[in-house]
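This part of the workshop introduces the protein records we will be handling. An example says more than a description, so a record of this kind follows:
>
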Amino acid sequence: MQLRFFLTAFFIMIYERCLLHVKVLHTLTIILGIDPGSRITGYGVIKKDGRNLSYLGSGCIKAFSSTKEDGENLFSDRLQTIFAGVSELIIQFSPDLFAIEEVFMGVNPGGALKLGQARGAAIVAATSQNLPVAEYSARQIKQSVVGTGAADKSQVQHMVKSILKLPGTPQADAADALAVALCHAHSHDSLSKMSGKAVKTVRGRLR
């Protein structure tokens, strides 16, 4: 009896949370997408008004380490730059939702570790502003925007330019970040139709 009550309460909570996100994305919503990198972090901001998507801004946060007297680079400086840069973007654009690309495990272990730390700095900047955080794999993003998970960067750039009706082709990192934001918008459109893959929520973060 207790187990049945617990399961019922659990599914009601999940259903209400899904309805909340669907409701949010049926109104005018600003989405900040992030393509994390330990040196260059791309960002893209779009506005979703019903089914209409429009471009608000994009660019890159360039993070470089300072050097100590003994010549050792301070990676922590890069993380601070990423955190500060994302925090500034949140203040500038006042996004409702935040989406970021997951770590691609095909890179070398050292690179994956640094990329994970860069992602962490960006995510902390978002959660400190009480933004819900959605995470998507590179394959999910490409599939959503281009139609194939094996798309290359030039294809992503072309589709981002086409979907958002941009006058020119965005820089690669910025285009990837815009693709993250578009993927998030498309993901919740699918959720609103009760089709496609369910979105998991963990402690206020979407996965």
About this structure: Residues 51 and 78 are 37 Å apart (CA to CA). The beta strands are 29-35, 40-49, 52-62, 66-67, 73-74, 97-101, 133-136, 201-202, 205-206. The longest helix spans residues 2-24.
